[in-house]
Amino acid sequence: MMRVIATCFVLTIAGIANATEVMRMAVTTSFHNSGLAEVLLPEIKADLDLEVQLLVVGTGQALKLGRSGDVDAILVHSKAAEEAFVADGFGTHRREIMYNDFVLIGPSDDPAGVAKAASAAEALQKIATMQTLFVSRGDDSGTHKKELSLWASAGQEVDSFTGWYRAVGAGMGAALNTASAMNAYILSDRASWLNFGNKGDLALLFSGDAVLFNQYAYLPVNPARHPHAKQELAAQLEDWLTSDRAKGLINGYTVDENALFVFNAR
Which of 6, 28, 55, 109 sits between 20 and 30 A of 170, alpha carbons compared? Predict the structure, then answer.
């Protein structure tokens, strides 16, 4: 009798443990470094009884995980790559969720004069002319893709850069740590910078150019490509991420009274 009771108890506990649904989402390191995930995930769990397991990688790797069917959805920030992902049939659609902006960080004494630049392109031209240390993510992330496009718009060829340009092949937090240790310039998303604790002698030197706009979008993985993709859970999460509930949490998330993201889902 005791054995039967014990068995029933184990089954009951297992049933409770399995009550929560689970899905996997690939997200950018910049989103994770911002700290917003720590705000949203508990509320998603409370509202939907849904556990969202994050795979924190650069945008390029997140898209690869989606293409291989290793996640159910992705949240990234590189529009052209996202549109190609959907056009190739790996994502069902692209839904914009929120935005912030990219900023140029560098030594507080600003040897290249970046703070006086009239545009992001001019700021990078100044860095290239002075050949002051610059740390690049170098990891095919959304931030890296943006950085490369900015160098191109500034008429600069990254392949020609010498020792002053350091590609670290790392996430946003690690790249910022490297820039802090080297007292170097770096492109960062504003949220990661504001939430970064090891600023050292670095300062935010340039922002505000429209080209630095940084949109984050949600893309469910296409079950026609990967039948095991949890389409219903991905749809539930999308509904939540585009709701007034998410809007309040996203717009209300601040660091030192600075808003890190602006909700713009439609």
Answer: 109
